[in-house]
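Contributing new records

If you add data, match the layout below exactly. Sequence lines come first and carry their own label; structure lines follow with theirs. Keep one chain per record. Anything else will be rejected by the validation script.
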Amino acid sequence: MVDSALVDGVLAGDRASIGRALTLVESRYPGHRAEATALLDDLLPHAVESHRVGITGVPGVGKSTFIEALGGRLTGAGRRVAVLAVDPTSTVTGGSILGDKTRMLRLANDPSAFVRPSPSAGTLGGVTRTTRESMAVLEAAGYDVVIVETVGVGQSETVVAGMVDFFLLLMLPGAGDELQGIKKGVLELADMIAVNKADGDNVPAARTAARDYSAALRLTQPTSPTWTPPVVTCAGLSGDGLDEVWVQVEAHREALIGSGEWTERRRAQRLAWMWSMVEDRLLVGLRSDPAVLSLLGAVEDDVLDGRTTPSAAAARLLGAFGT
């Protein structure tokens, strides 16, 4: 049963209601799954078509400062901005830092913005299991720009690139050795590279880095036949170059709408969302199945002690699950 007051609160842009809705869709408690699905069914018809922007970069590149400055510019121009700041989850304790809201205090307190730190829970690319659903809630609340900040600690960023309209890779000045360590696959996902912290004494190094990244991009396959990823310099702290960054984001949207790719990407995203949910539900179902649970301890012990191979153990569990 859907809480109609919760639905009305989200549609009205009530921040407390939005927070409750996001908590519900992020919940791993099996009893909340049906409630979250019903909530989304009620919200989706009212969702605006936001501009979804994924932003990644290594720790220390200044993602939070950059996003806060860019978000402030956008809200100042009349846009409503939501940020899903995916937070690292410790593989040791299972806890997360959840510090992005603290680092984006001005944007978090902006009445036209909403910042949501979400634990990554160890999922691929640092993107939470429910990022797509969270975006849907925020779009239903009327946010027309949704920024997804990824952890950026070396995992594949394919997941976030597949659910946003524009994928921005933030880099540091002084490419040099860093350029050697960039995975070609990450460059191929980028719709634009922005060399951040390009202010003060860093300006010459940033320009050199931009030239190096431009050369590297020429060796990759662009994400779209109608778009050549630009390389720009900017500074989140001073605000230099941020207007140019957004000009390129908008130009990319116009190019893809003109070619018809925008619509096709959105269609593909909806299909990917469906299969992601299928996989998630199957895994939850398998892990909670009584027949699987009755075997699980013994099967895991056999794998740990080398009495059976992981593939044979997997086949045994799947057989118990009926697949």
